[in-house]
Amino acid sequence: MTNLSSSSATTDVKVITMTDKTSVRPTAGLGSAGKSPAIAAEPVMDLTDVSVFYGDFEAVRGVSLPIRHNQITAMIGPSGCGKSTVLRALNRMNDLVAGARVAGSITYHGQDIYAPGVDPIQVRRHIGMVFQKANPFPKSIYDNIAYGPRLNGIKRRAELDVIVEEALTGAALWDEVKDKLKTSGLALSGGQQQRLCIARAIAVKPEVILMDEPCSALDPIATSKIEELMFQLAEDYTIVIVTHNMQQAARVSHYTSFFTAEVDDAGVRHGRLVEFDDTQKIFTNPAEQRTEDYITGRFG
Ligand SMILES: Nc1ncnc2c1ncn2[C@@H]1O[C@H](COP(=O)(O)OP(=O)(O)O)[C@@H](O)[C@H]1O
Ligand SMILES: [Mg+2]
């Protein structure tokens, strides 16, 4: 059952049931001969005509796109075109920014995540986030992972032990840290810290993981480890990744959305979604000239 309302909410938010989705997965990335999906996997989330404002400033205008089940969806585009803004809107992270407001509709299994009575904390349990710069808590590796489950009321040590091991294994970090779980998370390397943050995100068993440029502070080896990990995670999770690295989007994602900023008559820049399609199509035969110009490096 997916219930996004808090237990105290009195409004009649629909309780929806997660049914097992049969999805046909396209193979991620261009390296895989770029097979297109025969049937598009079912969307877990849907954005319809989404605009995001900071005060009076409409940072992003009119974005519609699906986020498909157990697929990796990349968001690419030049700096300032609104990728992070849209990503944060997907789990109500913009709620934490004073003056930020979302218009249009963002649904999760058909349920509007901005509807009255929806609890943003519940939204973020289902839709987790990993940030650009790894941000472990100044706590032990163990306590970093156990933090979310404990908040959710899990107290038994044996149960937490299992969760911690599963999350660290799922984030391809267990073998490197299993003998030093009491060490501070801050003592790990940058790449390990980012995998710790991924482990922390998956410890509460979200369905969707949002990643905002998760590799931009990492060296190429740490980056390729995270990319490999993303492939594995896509077996169990739906991933949305913002990246300014087009090669990364081409390597790891099944679907790509290309954003750019357009200047309106009043001279104000608004982020716009130019094109959304299979990654293979975006990088080999995009429908829009602007996409082509961007991916071939003529613009951006
Ligand atoms: N907290 C904020 N307050 C006001 N404006 C913001 C805020 N965050 C982002 N913006 C503006 O929104 C636009 C999109 O920014 P952002 O989503 O960070 O772009 P990207 O991630 O594509 O680089 C930019 O014009 C940026 O200055
Ligand atoms: Mg950004």
From TrEMBL:
CDD domains: ABC_PstB_phosphate_transporter
Keywords, ordered alphabetically: ATP-binding, Nucleotide-binding, Translocase, Transport
A family per Pfam: ABC_tran
SUPFAM superfamilies in UniProt: P-loop containing nucleoside triphosphate hydrolases
Keyword Nucleotide-binding attached: yes
An MF annotation (GO) of this entry: ATP binding
ABC transporter domain residues: 45-295
GO aspect biological process, one term: phosphate ion transmembrane transport
InterPro entries on file: AAA+_ATPase (IPR003593), ABC_transporter-like_ATP-bd (IPR003439), ABC_transporter-like_CS (IPR017871), P-loop_NTPase (IPR027417), PstB-like (IPR005670)
Top-level taxon of origin: Bacteria
GO cellular component: membrane
PROSITE patterns: ABC_TRANSPORTER_1, ABC_TRANSPORTER_2
UniProt name for this protein: Phosphate ABC transporter ATP-binding protein (PhoT family)
Naturally occurring in which organism (per UniProt): Stackebrandtia endophytica
